[in-house]
Write a structure and sequence with these properties.
The structure holds two protein chains of two kinds. Chain A has helices spanning 19-26, 49-54, 67-78, 91-94, 99-105, 130-136, 139-144, 157-180, 190-196, 243-252, 267-272, 274-285, 290-299, 317-321, 363-369, 374-382, and strands at residues 8-12, 31-36, 58-62, 82-85, 110-115, 184-189, 204-205, 220-222, 225-229, 235-239, 304-306, 325-330, 334-339, 344-345, 386-387. By secondary structure, chain A is of the alpha/beta class. Chain A has two domains: 8-198 and 323-393, Rossmann fold (3-Layer(aba) Sandwich), CATH 3.40.50.10540; 220-306, formyl-coa transferase, domain 3. Chain A has a seven-stranded mixed beta sheet with strand order 6-5-4-1-2-3-15, sandwiched between helices. In chain A, a hairpin with a 3-residue loop joins strand 12 (325-330) and strand 13 (334-339). In chain A, helix 1 crosses helix 8 and helix 8 packs across helix 9 (190-196). Chain A is elongated and about 85 Å long. The two termini of chain A are 34 Å apart. Chain B has 17 helices and twelve strands. Chain B has a six-stranded parallel beta sheet with strand order 3-2-1-4-5-6, with helices on both faces. Chain B has a three-stranded antiparallel beta sheet with strand order 7-8-9, with helices on one face. A two-stranded antiparallel sheet of chain B has the order 10-11. In chain B, helix 2 (48-53) links the parallel strand 2 and strand 3. In chain B, helix 1 (18-27) crosses helix 8 and helix 6 (130-137) packs across helix 9. Classes of the chains: A alpha/beta, B alpha/beta. Strand 7 (204-205) of chain A pairs antiparallel with strand 11 of chain B, so a sheet runs across the interface.
Chain lengths: 394, 388
């Protein structure tokens, strides 16, 4: 049994923000149909990227600019509990698929708009890409440090925060619908997500001293909160939030003399002499391998971690034991390992119903479910109203 | 009922960021949240973020190391719909608020345990400190660029934040399932697993995977990167699809770029060394006008771009204000504090901030009197015995 068994989702989204939200619902058991434009979701071009946000869905493709496709869309929506879209604000009004239009044919629909900039304000119809929000929101300056070059977060941080919040919004609306019978419109944006992702930093009052901790290529924040290179040229992160951990650290690395060194006798002194301490510790950490340090420090309860390479993670012992990665066969790509389902439920389970779909892989199947005959489906294909997958794979 | 979680009661045994942030997100969609702090208070008190992560809640103190404190916790759990705890595995059991005990007290409960690394596997005892989770997932290494570069530490506590979002989603999903089936259950969330999903696109693994070295902290894709105007100020240009790449070429008067083989792979897969060549070319072009001139020019051509600004500016950003993402809250001793609004908008059941974060033990008497029917005399006794 899965928490969202029986819930149907029409997913009209592309790229990351949007597809990921619908995938979170799919992995909780919802039946998700991804509706792609004739040239496909542009994120398909990023091999490996697409499958992270579209697993478990079925794909159907149609040209929503044509009236006959719109009829199909309405038929699909009429069968759905949730509609998810992430086009530029205004596009869905032009297509006649905005909330006010949709609610006429499906009064209790939950209609999620996962937008770039939100539906109100001067930038509402500008294209919304993650790094534009990283730039404007202070995330890049925060990471780069004030008066230094801003730094681009390699992970699309807002594009990933927004769909998590969006999925939360959808289940809230579903819960409310379960109790009242009423649907509603839900809106989230990269703008709002960029603030939620800095909730502790986005605070301002008279006399507040703002700390700028960032800097280009910083290794950490202090000698006891940073990376160190080890004998085998790996990097470990070492953290001593409490005094006893600082003491254990000195013992494990064989620098007990630091404990009686007046330069490092307390937190304040260590902060004052941070550079010298970094130098001393850097030397010491070069004498053993990363694995040796991690084992030694963990035994004394000093927080430590090996900075892993992306390609190592799927084979990490903790990931293997917890089955954190999902492994399945894909056409062309072969065997693919990708992150699995996050929440674990004691009485139910999440589910990955199928691999990420090929473009238009389920067009015919879904149309048939909506009551279209095979003759009609052929006509729709011939008239370029709908598209099916035409590539052949081994 | 005018909010999605109206009528639900949440007991928040969280501390630091993930648990408290989750409980706050539930509170601002209508749940009644009681934050239970240890006698010394949440160690995160004093950080500016504390005010945000704990607003809209009532706060009580309880010494869970004492049996009498646990008994009060049990009374609260009996009345709750949701319990949230973020401790290392095994700690909640020692404090008498583990899942098995909680389920005995209240079988319909949705019980959420947030841990750093989950309850199984070799890292299960690793503490859930942000940098430990982030480092284990490899995002510092990847941000640093690998090859000969050291890792780059990221200043935002991303694991905590994403975990709060994932947890709010998961708890609500469990509440919805309970609505349908009548069954409560335990929900396990690990910060590590959450971050594996966040880093998913770089972690996905198959034989032919192309790994592009991350050579530049300002971005390595020429058409998706930070550039400097002639005044030294930075902006990001995001030509995220081929339509924008074409629009850009035409707007810049370089129609020949449309057929230039160096642009093959645009937007994201222009590989070294060609990406460096193009980056140099664009950098030179952008050094001829100020940042703001470029932004005005590019926006008029519908080309995605934005200035890189410090967070202070964001409080006055017209888009942020139009979407009501700044609220002002009176905090004792600080005056009016500007902080984030409620990020999700609902047409029928809008959320809302219910008030400032509680002072330590601020609602001890109120909660004990109203929910647990304690008399004034009992409360005095509890104080005297340092239970509350």
């Amino acid at each position: 049994m899965h928490p969202l068994d029986g819930i149907k989702v029409a997913d009209f989204t592309t790229m990351i923000n949007g597809p990921f939200a619908a995938m979170m619902l799919a992995e909780m058991g919802a039946d998700v149909i991804k509706v792609e434009p004739p040239d496909g979701d542009p994120w398909r071009s990023v091999a490996g990227g697409f499958i992270c946000y579209n697993r478990g869905k079925r794909s159907i493709s149609m040209d929503l600019k044509k009236d006959e496709a719109k009829e199909i869309a309405f038929a699909l929506i009429a069968e759905s509990d949730v509609l998810v879209e992430n086009a530029r604000w205004g596009v869905w009004h032009r297509l006649g698929l905005d909330y006010e239009s949709v609610v006429k044919i499906k009064p209790d629909i939950i209609y999620l708009s996962s937008l770039g900039h939100g539906s109100k304000g001067p930038y509402s119809s500008l294209p919304g890409y993650d790094p534009l929000l990283q730039a404007r929101s202070g995330q890049m300056v925060g990471q780069g440090g004030i008066d230094k070059p801003p730094v681009y977060h390699q992970i699309a941080i807002n594009d990933l925060a927004c769909p998590m919040l969006a999925a939360y919004g959808v289940v809230l609306a579903l819960l409310s619908r379960a109790r009242t019978g009423k649907g509603q419109r839900v809106e989230i944006s990269l703008t709002n997500a960029s603030i939620a992702l800095q909730a502790g930093e986005f605070v301002d009052y008279a006399g507040m001293e703002r700390k700028y901790l960032g800097g280009s290529n910083i290794q950490g924040l202090s000698a006891t909160h940073r990376h160190y290179q080890t004998k085998d040229d790996r990097y470990i992160f070492v953290l001593c939030p409490y005094e006893r951990q600082w003491q254990s650290l000195c013992q494990v690395i064989g620098l007990e003399e630091l404990l009686s060194d007046p330069r490092f006798e307390n937190f304040e002194k260590r902060a004052e002499n941070d550079e010298s301490l970094v130098e001393l510790l850097s030397e010491a950490f070069k004498t053993r391998t990363a694995d040796e340090w991690v084992a030694g420090l963990e035994e004394e309860d000093v927080p430590v971690a090996l900075g892993q390479m992306a390609e190592e993670l799927p084979y990490d012992q903790h990931c293997l034991e917890n089955k954190i990665f999902d492994e399945r066969e894909y056409p062309v790509m072969g065997n693919v390992r990708a992150p699995g389902i996050v929440p674990l439920f004691s009485e139910m389970s999440g589910i990955i119903r199928r691999r990420a779909p090929l473009f238009g892989e389920h067009t015919e199947e879904v149309l048939a479910e909506l009551g279209y005959t095979s003759e009609r489906i052929s006509e729709l294909k011939d008239n370029k109203i709908v598209y099916v997958n035409e590539e052949e794979f081994e | 009922m005018d909010q999605a979680l109206s009528g639900f009661k949440v007991i928040d045994f969280g501390h630091y960021i993930p648990g408290p942030y989750t409980a706050m997100m539930l509170a601002e969609q209508g749940a009644e949240v009681i934050k239970v702090e240890r006698p010394g208070g949440d160690p995160y008190r004093g950080e500016p973020g504390f005010m945000v992560f704990n607003r809209s809640k009532k706060g009580i103190t309880l010494d869970l190391k004492k049996e009498e404190g646990q008994r009060i916790a049990h009374e609260l759990i009996k009345q709750a719909d949701v319990v949230i705890a973020n401790y290392r595995p095994g700690v909640t059991e020692r404090l008498g608020i583990g899942y098995d005990r909680a389920r005995e007290l209240n079988p319909n409960l949705v019980y959420c345990s947030i841990t750093g690394f989950g309850e199984e596997g070799p890292y299960r005892d690793r503490p859930g400190w942000d940098p430990i989770v982030a480092s284990t997932v490899g995002i510092y290494v990847e941000q640093g660029g690998r090859e000969d570069n050291p890792p780059t530490y990221l200043v935002l506590p991303l694991p905590s934040y994403y975990t709060a979002f994932m947890t709010s989603f998961s708890i609500t999903t469990a509440l919805l399932a309970r609505e349908m089936t009548g069954k409560g259950q335990k929900v396990d969330i690990s910060m590590f697993k959450t971050m594996i999903t966040v880093a998913g696109s770089m972690l996905v693994d198959f034989e032919e995977k192309i790994r592009i070295p991350y050579s530049n902290p300002q971005g390595q894709a020429p058409v998706y990167k930070l550039y400097q105007g002639s005044d030294g100020k930075w902006f990001f240009m995001a030509l995220g699809n081929l339509t924008f790449v074409s629009k850009f070429a035409l707007a810049m008067g370089h129609d020949e770029w449309l057929v230039d083989p160096r642009f093959e792979g645009a937007p994201f897969l222009i590989l070294p060394p060609i990406n460096l060549e193009l980056i140099e070319m664009f950098s030179e072009i952008f050094s001829t006008r100020t940042r703001d001139e470029w932004i005005e020019f590019l926006r008029a051509e519908d080309i995605p771009c934005a200035p890189a600004l410090p967070i202070e500016n964001y409080f006055d950003d017209p888009q942020v204000l139009a979407n009501e993402m700044v609220v002002e809250i009176e905090e004792p001793g600080l005056g009016s504090v500007r902080e984030m609004g409620v990020s999700i908008n609902f047409s029928r059941t809008p959320g809302g901030v219910k008030g400032r974060s509680p002072k330590i033990g601020e609602h001890n008497e109120e909660v004990l009197t109203e929910l647990l029917d304690c008399s004034a005399q009992e409360i005095t006794g509890l104080k005297k015995r340092e239970i509350i």
